[in-house]
Write a structure and sequence with these properties.
Blueprint: H1 2-24, H2 32-57
Helix pairs in contact: 1-2
């Protein structure tokens, strides 16, 4: 049962990371400064989730 909980947790974290990365793609009409700020924020969130996956897995 513990293994299934770990698998579900990791899959959930990966789905959150995918949503963040899809949102991080710059829009065609976005302001260049806004795009850079949001890209840094989104990539840092994705990095934190990746680290959480690594810590959660071990």
């Amino acid at each position: 049962m513990r293994q299934w909980q770990q698998i579900i947790g990791v899959v959930g974290l990966l789905l959150i990371e995918v949503m963040i990365m899809l949102y991080a793609v710059p829009k065609a009409n976005a302001n260049e400064i806004d795009t850079r700020v949001w890209l840094v924020i989104d990539l840092s969130l994705a990095l934190l989730i990746s680290l959480a996956i690594l810590i959660y897995d071990f």
